[in-house]
Amino acid sequence: MLPQWSRGLRENVLRIPSTLKACFPSIQRKVNNVDLRGAYIMYDKFTGLDRVRTAHEEVMLAEKNFIDRQLERRACQTECFRLEEARNRLNIQLDSVSRSDENFLTLVTQLHELSRQHKDAREKLSSVESAEQLAFEQFSGCLRRSQAEERVQANRMRQWSIGLSVLAGLVGFSATWVRFRNQATVHPASTVAVAAADKEVLLPVLRELQHTNEQWKETIASLSGVIESLKTDLSK
């Protein structure tokens, strides 16, 4: 025969899953309607995600700049090759034309113009190659800073996770110790019976709480979707 307080505890504990189920839809609707932009910004600052995101944006911009410089350098190289081939063809024609020929002066003029254009193209190619090297160095620096920020943020989250896990373990141990000490002090004869009854009561409750936990996971997933959409809106 269980004590009166234990039966009352059992009834109250058994009501927890049904209470959570009843409150869950309204809580989910309220959560979906809450403006989380402020909380999202505070969470980013607290965890360091804002610095990580800023570093990622810098990496993307530096990568785009580097790719643009690469494309510009390839276009300049193509132009230089084209001018070189045209100049080589003119040199072959000049070798086969007599200096007294009427076309000789025209070919010389064309060769001079192609040589001038080739010189300008080579100078432009040199400046573009320097810009490409500078863009590559900037991209490498941004990438290293981004990786450093990611390591700092991961270490910070790991430290908070360990600290919170230790704190939760201490709180749970303290609550269990106080509970069983009170039971042993107030009802020493029924301690074993209460423990067995608690086990019988808590097993179905734990199953219900596990199901409720799955629902919370779905809510958190939906919150993640809302946060991502807010991030997209804010970036625009």
From TrEMBL:
InterPro entries: CCDC51. PANTHER family: COILED-COIL DOMAIN-CONTAINING PROTEIN 51 (PTHR28624), MITOCHONDRIAL POTASSIUM CHANNEL (PTHR28624:SF1). This is Coiled-coil domain-containing protein 51. It comes from Opisthorchis viverrini (Southeast Asian liver fluke).
